[in-house]
Amino acid sequence: MTPPTRGENQAAAIGAAAGAAAVAGVTVSLDTIYQTLQEVQGDVRDIKNKVDRLADGHSDHESRIRALERKVWTAAGTASAVAGSLGATLTFLATRLT
């Protein structure tokens, strides 16, 4: 890559002074940079809101799963107690009748 000529340096300085950056024949004004930055900022805000909603949904999902697990374990414990009592009662009756 060859170093820039004196004219290229002057053109770059003039472009920078006028609020633009010149690189390899491309000129981007400060207005364009500002508009693009505003669009990116809006996109980031949208993504943040979506992540926040997902996090809220995740905690709600966790609480629903915990409530369901609590019901399942309660039902399993109740079934075990009923089965044990029924088994003991039937065993007692079987030994009494014979």
What descriptors fit this protein?
two-stranded antiparallel sheet, 8% strand, mainly alpha, 98 residues
Largest sheet: 2 strands, antiparallel
The residue ranges in which pLDDT falls below 50 over 5 or more consecutive positions are none
Q: Looking at the structure, what is the overall shape?
A: rod-shaped
Let me know the average pLDDT: 83
Helical content (DSSP H or I, runs of 4+):
over 70%
What radius of gyration results from the CA coordinates? 37 Å
Write the layout of secondary structure elements.
Elements: H1 6-17, E1 20-23, E2 26-29, H2 30-97
Overview of this structure, please?
There is one protein chain. This protein is mainly α and 98 residues long. It has a domain of 67 residues. It contains two helices and two strands; from the N terminus they run H-E-E-H. Strands 1-2 form a two-stranded antiparallel sheet. Strand 1 and strand 2 form a beta hairpin. The longest helix has 68 residues. It starts with 5 loop residues before the first helix and ends with a helix.
In brief, what are we looking at here?
With 98 residues, this protein is mainly α.
